[in-house]
Amino acid sequence: MAIREILEVPDPRLKTVSSPVTVFDAELKTLVADMFETMYDAPGIGLAAIQVGVPSRVLVIDLQPDDPDAEPEECHHDGHKHFHQPTIRQPRVFVNPEILDPADELATYQEGCLSVPEIYADVDRPATCRVRYQDLDGKVHEEDMTGLMATCIQHEMDHLEGVLFIDHLSRLKRQMALKKLQKLRQAA
Ligand code: GNR
Ligand code: NI
Questions:
Q1: What spacing in Å lies between the alpha carbon of 129 and ligand 2's midpoint?
Q2: Ligand 1 contact via 159 beta carbon (within 6 Å)
Q3: Is 153 in the pocket of ligand 1 (CB under 6 A)?
Q4: Tens-digit pLDDT profile for residues 133-166
Q5: Is 2 among the domain residues?
Q6: From ligand 1's centre to the CA of 17, what distance in Å?
Q7: Which of helix, strand or coil describes residue 178?
């Protein structure tokens, strides 16, 4: 397993339309394992393969990486002692996902994106949807999504079409967000 580099705007690869997965092999399983490691390290609640430079229709999501009530656990690395919250992981993998019957009703969440770091903005999306997807063995599933899961999977599916959450903002708000990111980078 390995942490992979996350592409950031304005990397043109983020605009790629990703291709369907046709082979469910060990390489796909390695990609997914690396995507989880990269997402948990970031940390984020979702990641699309294109964000690590792989133009395949693969998403990982875990809405619950941390249990805030759990006792901290001691661990050692880099020659130092660290305390970490134990994690209750709910890793989900979606291969070749499709959105079915999105609700007319919209929900607004303040979204962020690992490819647009430190920028947050409200985005309206269908409040619920059904998703058809394949698992790592190619088996087809369907599932109804609500709440943050519905929002997150639509955010991730946008990445498969080369779309970022800032593309849902007005041109003025998008330009303000990108300027703010430039400024943050200059300060760093
Ligand atoms: O970590 C993330 N948080 C988030 C918050 C609200 C709506 C969507 C997301 S996804 C994001 C990680 C990411 O960039 N996935 O593509
Ligand atoms: Ni994102």
A1: 19
A2: yes
A3: no
A4: 999 999 999 999 999 999 999 999 999 999 999 9
A5: no
A6: 19
A7: helix
- Domain that residue 112 falls in: 12-187
Of 37, 73, 156, 161, which is the active-site residue?
Answer: 156
Vertex 51: Cα angle to 50 and 53 (nearest 5): 55
Cα of 59 from ligand 1 centre, angstroms = 12
The string of pLDDT tens digits covering residues 91-131 is 999 999 999 999 999 999 999 999 999 999 999 999 999 99
Q: Tell me the C-alpha distance between 153 and 180, whole Å.
A: 26
| Structural domains counted in the chain | 1
21: tokens are 């997965």
* CATH number assigned to the domain comprising residue 35: 3.90.45.10
| Within a domain: 7 | no
Tokens of 37: 């490691």
Assigned domain for 6 exists: no
H/E element, 37: helix 26-41
Q: Are 28 and 58 in contact (CB under 8 A)?
A: yes
